[in-house]
């Protein structure tokens, strides 16, 4: 469980610091807008008094013109304030989004295995969007509301202390109640965010598995689950909203009493001739205006509750640490890299060991064929080599260096992997081949494409390297995807390559092209080939046979192929029989 953290001001302020001057400008404009708001009722007061007294048409027109002028300027300020507030909100929350994404990308695979991409999108974007209003306007609105309240009450004290006292009591009561119950909706809002994240997780999971869902007639069942998730979102949202608006509702009730009291006192003062009709209007107008900052405070407290739930979730995510600790070693020896596993044990989950006591050694430039039945642990070995998981015990060395003491970046720079699932990104063919590395020239890309036999495929694309590819990989066949992935790895000039070949059978021509490409790639590096067809292992130096997570055989391919008592010999016989059949 992640440590529970209270919302600290410094966390909030670190994202506001870069926009501090914009916030100062925001505050400055808000103060001017408040001053204008305070002036206008006084113009109306004079207008009424002059209209009912000795005012001339010229002075009334001047007052009316002044009123309109101030109202227009105030509207301009309101629009600019809105723009600037949103600007501050986007700038600051985008920084949080970037921190969350960067942090999430560095978290270990055990974390990612537990979370669906949809849920993560909600956490990185949805939760942060919930904070945006808070970031843009909270401090400014709170300060602005207090200034406006002080302005109104101060002014009222000059005219009528009893009315000012009534307003002051109402204001203090409203603010007191709001602050006392400001956290009422935080937990419920957090539950609402979680329900949303689960819903998005569900939608993403279903859409990414659309082929299986449709082929198995699973749409009605999935819609059923979707409706249940939606119901949870609705129920948790309703509860959170009701709790969040409670402070505001309390102030509405208090306000009704305040307006009644002020009107009663004002009318009495007017009937006794102590104030003019214009001043009575001014009192009424100021009482109405008093509601605005209090309502603003109420709104901000609602936003605070939403934001606090988002911030708690974001901070919780940021407080998670990857189980993969960075090492200090910056580099590996030049040229092809040696590989050694020394008594390696590994489990994904504590109670289920997947690899038992794995030991083997590959010299620089050697090629290893890894064979074994489905689920025997072949892919797990490749994931460990890239340090996607920590091992339970034992040691893995690459280029003679324990990979735990290496910086991850140093390892990824030199080790390439081609997995069974080739991931395409939204971008051009060039972006996908170079993985957005603009340092690679078109000549280098074409040279590699040519070498690996991918040229006819690229030439057939409508805009060559500039053709856009759909994210997800649906536009590639299994063979093309493998060739594509090989090119991608080839361009990184790796010193150790792991090839997890596709289990589906390819046609003879594609297989031959693929084989040529693999040979080219492995020419200048150490290679580990996870093979589903033994025919692809004709050129490897060593063979390792895995069974139920144990390495039951390891040795030179030629020797094993000629030894009738070896497991590899037996597998070769079975493979040949299957091919004949
Ligand atoms: N992310 C994971 N979490 C938990 N268990 C896993 C995970 N990935 C694999 N396993 C389990 O680890 C064992 C070895 O899986 P692995 O993918 O290494 O097998 P494999 O030999 O590569 O299989 P295949 O030939 O089908 O690709 C299997 O029992 C599998 O269920």
TrEMBL record:
<dbReference type="GO" id="GO:0008234">
    <property type="term" value="F:cysteine-type peptidase activity"/>
</dbReference>
<dbReference type="InterPro" id="IPR003439">
    <property type="entry name" value="ABC_transporter-like_ATP-bd"/>
</dbReference>
<feature type="domain" description="ABC transmembrane type-1">
    <location>
        <begin position="24"/>
        <end position="306"/>
    </location>
</feature>
<keyword id="KW-0378">Hydrolase</keyword>
<feature type="transmembrane region" description="Helical">
    <location>
        <begin position="163"/>
        <end position="181"/>
    </location>
</feature>
<dbReference type="InterPro" id="IPR011527">
    <property type="entry name" value="ABC1_TM_dom"/>
</dbReference>
<keyword id="KW-0788">Thiol protease</keyword>
<dbReference type="Pfam" id="PF00005">
    <property type="entry name" value="ABC_tran"/>
</dbReference>
<keyword id="KW-0347">Helicase</keyword>
<protein>
    <submittedName>
        <fullName>Helicase</fullName>
    </submittedName>
</protein>
<dbReference type="GO" id="GO:0004386">
    <property type="term" value="F:helicase activity"/>
</dbReference>
<keyword id="KW-0472">Membrane</keyword>
<keyword id="KW-1133">Transmembrane helix</keyword>
<dbReference type="GO" id="GO:0005886">
    <property type="term" value="C:plasma membrane"/>
</dbReference>
<keyword id="KW-0645">Protease</keyword>
<feature type="transmembrane region" description="Helical">
    <location>
        <begin position="57"/>
        <end position="77"/>
    </location>
</feature>
<feature type="transmembrane region" description="Helical">
    <location>
        <begin position="248"/>
        <end position="271"/>
    </location>
</feature>
<dbReference type="GO" id="GO:0015421">
    <property type="term" value="F:ABC-type oligopeptide transporter activity"/>
</dbReference>
<keyword id="KW-0812">Transmembrane</keyword>
<dbReference type="InterPro" id="IPR027417">
    <property type="entry name" value="P-loop_NTPase"/>
</dbReference>
<keyword id="KW-0067">ATP-binding</keyword>
<dbReference type="InterPro" id="IPR036640">
    <property type="entry name" value="ABC1_TM_sf"/>
</dbReference>
<dbReference type="GO" id="GO:0016887">
    <property type="term" value="F:ATP hydrolysis activity"/>
</dbReference>
<dbReference type="InterPro" id="IPR039421">
    <property type="entry name" value="Type_1_exporter"/>
</dbReference>
<keyword id="KW-1003">Cell membrane</keyword>
<dbReference type="Pfam" id="PF00664">
    <property type="entry name" value="ABC_membrane"/>
</dbReference>
<dbReference type="InterPro" id="IPR003593">
    <property type="entry name" value="AAA+_ATPase"/>
</dbReference>
<feature type="domain" description="ABC transporter">
    <location>
        <begin position="339"/>
        <end position="573"/>
    </location>
</feature>
<keyword id="KW-0813">Transport</keyword>
<keyword id="KW-0547">Nucleotide-binding</keyword>
<dbReference type="GO" id="GO:0005524">
    <property type="term" value="F:ATP binding"/>
</dbReference>
<feature type="transmembrane region" description="Helical">
    <location>
        <begin position="134"/>
        <end position="157"/>
    </location>
</feature>
């Amino acid at each position: 469980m992640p440590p529970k953290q209270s919302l600290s001001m410094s966390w909030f302020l670190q994202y506001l610091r870069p926009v501090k001057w914009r916030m100062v400008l925001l505050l400055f404009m808000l103060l001017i807008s408040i001053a204008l708001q305070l002036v206008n009722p006084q113009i109306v007061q004079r207008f009424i008094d002059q209209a009912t007294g000795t005012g001339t048409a010229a002075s009334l027109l001047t007052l009316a013109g002044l009123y309109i002028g101030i109202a227009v300027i105030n509207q301009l300020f309101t629009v600019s304030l809105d723009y600037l507030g949103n600007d501050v909100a986007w700038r600051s929350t985008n920084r949080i989004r970037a921190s969350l994404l960067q942090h999430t990308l560095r978290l270990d695979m055990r974390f990612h295995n537990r979370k669906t991409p949809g849920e993560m999108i909600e956490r990185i974007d949805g939760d942060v969007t919930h904070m945006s209003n808070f970031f843009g306007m909270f401090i400014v609105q709170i300060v602005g509301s207090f200034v406006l309240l002080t302005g109104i009450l101060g002014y009222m004290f000059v005219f009528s202390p009893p009315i000012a006292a009534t307003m002051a009591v109402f204001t203090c009561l409203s603010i007191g109640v709001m602050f006392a119950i400001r956290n009422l909706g935080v937990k419920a809002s957090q539950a609402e965010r979680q329900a949303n994240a689960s819903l998005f997780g569900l939608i993403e999971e279903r859409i990414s598995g659309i082929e299986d869902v449709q082929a198995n007639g699973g749409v009605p069942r999935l819609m059923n689950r979707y409706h249940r998730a939606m119901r949870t979102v609705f129920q948790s949202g309703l509860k959170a909203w009701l709790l969040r608006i409670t402070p505001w509702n309390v102030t509405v009730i208090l306000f009704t009493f305040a307006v009644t009291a002020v009107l009663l006192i004002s009318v009495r003062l007017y009937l006794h001739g102590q104030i003019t009709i214009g001043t009575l209007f001014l009192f009424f107008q100021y009482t109405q205006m008093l509601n605005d900052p209090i309502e603003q405070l109420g709104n901000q407290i609602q936003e605070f509750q939403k934001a606090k739930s988002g911030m708690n979730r974001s901070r919780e995510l940021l407080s998670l640490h990857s189980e993969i600790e960075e090492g200090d070693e910056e580099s590996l020896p030049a040229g092809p890299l040696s590989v050694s596993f020394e008594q390696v044990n590994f489990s994904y989950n504590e109670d289920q060991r997947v690899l038992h006591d794995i030991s083997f050694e590959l010299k620089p430039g050697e090629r290893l064929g890894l064979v074994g039945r489905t689920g025997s642990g072949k892919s797990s070995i490749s994931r460990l080599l890239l340090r996607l998981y920590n091992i339970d015990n034992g040691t893995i060395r690459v280029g003679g260096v324990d990979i735990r003491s290496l910086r991850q970046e140093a390892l990824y720079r030199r080790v390439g992997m081609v997995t069974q699932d080739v991931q395409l990104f939204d971008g051009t063919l060039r972006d996908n081949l170079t993985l957005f590395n603009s340092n690679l020239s078109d000549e280098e890309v074409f040279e590699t494409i040519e070498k690996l036999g991918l040229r006819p495929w690229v030439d057939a694309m409508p805009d060559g390297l500039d053709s856009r590819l759909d994210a997800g990989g649906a536009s590639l066949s299994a063979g093309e995807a493998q060739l594509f992935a090989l090119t991608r790895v080839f361009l990184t000039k790796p010193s150790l390559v792991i090839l997890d070949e596709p289990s589906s059978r390819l046609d003879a021509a594609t297989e031959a092209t693929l084989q040529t490409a693999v040979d080219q790639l492995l020419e200048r590096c150490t290679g580990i080939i996870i093979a589903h067809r033994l025919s692809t292992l004709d050129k490897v130096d060593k063979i390792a046979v895995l069974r139920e997570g144990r390495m039951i055989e390891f040795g030179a391919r030629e020797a094993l192929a000629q030894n009738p008592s070896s497991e590899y010999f037996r597998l070769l016989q079975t493979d040949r029989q299957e091919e004949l059949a």
